[in-house]
Request: fold
Amino acid sequence: MKLTLKIWRQKNAQAKGKFETYTVEANEHMSFLEMLDVLNEELVNQKKEPVAFEHDCREGICGACSLVINGQPHGPMNGTTTCQVHMRHYKDGDTIVIEPYRAKAFPVMKDLVVDRSAFDRIIQAGGFISVNTGQAQDANAIPVDHDVASSAFDAATCIGCGACVAACPNASAMLFTSAKVAHLNMLPQGKVEAQQRVLNMVKQMDIEGFGRCSNITACEAECPKGISVTNIARMNREYLGASLGSEKTA
Amino acid sequence: MKLDGKVPPGPLAEKWTTYQSTVPLVAPNNKRRLEIIVVGSGLAGAAAAASLGELGYNVKCFTYHDSPRRAHSIAAQGGINAAKNYSNDGDSVYRLFYDTIKGGDYRSREANVHRLAEVSTNIIDQAVAQGVPFAREYGGLLENRSFGGVQVSRTFYAKGQTGQQLLIGAYQALSRQIARGSVEMYNRHEMMDIVTIDGKARGIIARNLVTGEIERHGAHAVLLCTGGYGNVFYLSTNAMNCNATAAWRAVRRGALMANPCFTQIHPTCIPQSGDYQSKLTLMSESLRNDGRVWVPKKKEDAKAIQEGRKKGTDIPEEDRDYFLERRYPAFGNLVPRDVASRAAKVACDEGLGVAPTGLAVFLDFSAAIERYGRSEAHLKGMHNADAATIRQLGEKVIEDKYGNLFEMYEKITGENPYKLPMKIYPAVHYTMGGVWVDYNLETNIPGLFVLGEANFSDHGANRLGASALMQGLADGYFVAPYTVGNFLSGEIRTPKIDPNAPEFMKTAEEVQERLSKLMNIKGNQSVESFHRRLGKIMWDHCGMARNAEDLQKGRQLIRELREEYYKDLFVPGDLNEFNPELEKAHRVADFLELGELMMLDAFNRNESCGGHFREEYQDEKGEAKRNDKDYAYVAAWEWTDTSKDPILHKEELVFENVELKTRSYE
Reply:
């Protein structure tokens, strides 16, 4: 199949970017990123600079790949990262617009690559359980209800790709932050620091320049791991409880 | 050079405990003055950086990713072993030790493996305390499953995302130390070289991948936690950026490369579909708990499937060959990876493969779906449930266990594995070989440590499933904090390492020259095209089955390819900018040297053991013939010059606690 690609090209963080148009010959078995590999190899063969995009595991788990494809983070498929989108979902003659994530807190570094280090700083603010190596008791000492463990796991499957931010008209990081708060605060091991955690992480989220949540829930719709917006409701509840119902401050 | 494994004296089971209680310590006031560089932020790297930071050292951690959470440990699916014996099925530290030694075909160091089995239990405790949401029984306690090459259930898991959950746990521990300032994190930085001063590792040269700047970083000790070199084959289950550069640069500075030919070909991967393909995707070994591997008995059926005229479900039960169950009744579908891969290759070589390429076998869940379905129906009191209902109930159970894997399979292949058997084929997955280290995980360069997949130490010639996560975390959380301290206790008088020392300036200059050289070839071929060709040479000559003639031919082909590389490579862009093509070019240059050494190592090892199968050395049934008399050693190679042969050093493996036996899974 022959495709027309309109791709955002931007030399570096300071430069002004623009769309460039390319054509590429793909087949239905290729993944989306393999289609971009084909384009890049052609560009290199023509002594031109290939399109920079982030990717690594290509199994949908590392969270490195991103891209906004025809206006949707990670493309058209539900519950799928860009690297797992296959070209069988496109047809000959299609035009595909490929952009980087657009959010104040995720500045573009080059072409389709953005800086997502704000997410790391949110985790550093409190997305952990304070236990040093060697301090742990026997793993079976604290039973955890099967369903609680299962819900905590569901929240913990977040891959930190940032699609939630890219999908949100406010560029809010509430889904990402709340998924981590939910994962840790639900478990007995994480309860000790629950209040401090939610206060610190929310504060950091605000410092990074992410927007507020206005319950549009585009984040859930675009999340490749199906992280639920109920995590946001939970975080709001915990935040309220911690701000009003405790002496703790961020 | 005499290789000293520095294995502590005393009975096997007491070595590590004695070591821990007698190792020299570093006082807290001195820890604050000492600096450690950790390269890599996967399970081994993140765990080591976090643990050393907690102890009070000043740690700098480097990753080429945009965040430490992206390391490829994240993609590990099936689980992590630990000798907890929570299943009450006869497991023990000794049994885990024994299974690992046997699974590795008696080519690993006893003392290291025993220590690994000992600390395995601590890892699970640590991970649970960090909030890793392992699978649990309804009573709230941890659940286990079984993996290849063992007869107990000792594998802890979090659906098919165990690596992700463990890495996130380590990443969070690391993040906590970053917040405290005890670890300084360098994202988007790639290690380009090791700096040695007076024979000791004293720092690294790193390239800032955003600006292209070459940076010099000093430390009292350097830990490489940089993973394996499977991408030398181009197509593997490794992530696209996985590379051997850190390890290879250490070898170029005098460290030794041990058993590089020991590569693991994983039996259950999604088969290749075209030449444009960039990587292969693993389907977790855990699937072999419930999936049955088969090919048609008749060639005409296989041909019909290859040509799309028949489906797997069209083949009646009596015309199927469940070849693992037939050949290895004791372990059945759960034989170790090397054995399963080879058996699949044999079936496909006979023309019984089931993909258009002829290179695939079935992994079939229909029997498990029916079994689980019946059991569920029984639980629900439905004693006359029809076939469709049973199937539906069974599919639900399979979905709970492997949902994400089935989904991933369907996304990639477009086929529904609940209805049609999966098609799988072996692919390069893990490298048992790696940088030679002693019991301290220290190389022959004092102060240079290598952890996790990057070292050679624990898995011999074949790694058992769910043991990579165990080793990465064991090395990082529980071994390195003691052994690195052992080295640093002798460095408390060493002042801060000056990154402006002449050794740093010289190494940085060499790095700069190497990069300029790659940029200035200005030939006509892309890095990718060279890498693809290298991979094909490796797979054809040093793949699942090897022989002396092919290996020699392969070695020559790599030399020619390397020559062509330095004549006709084209790297676009500039040195001083974000330039992924330049990053790849530097990595592939190192693969082109390592690949040659792998051929040489495989040629030198005149035996078949584990993942290394030499066609000349097999019995009448096609099983591997090991040669303990001549090859019960670690082959540690010293690099001299690309134009000369590397020098072989041997560390004889001494087995005091296990008897060397022919590995049988029949």
Notes: The radius of gyration of chain B is 25 Å.
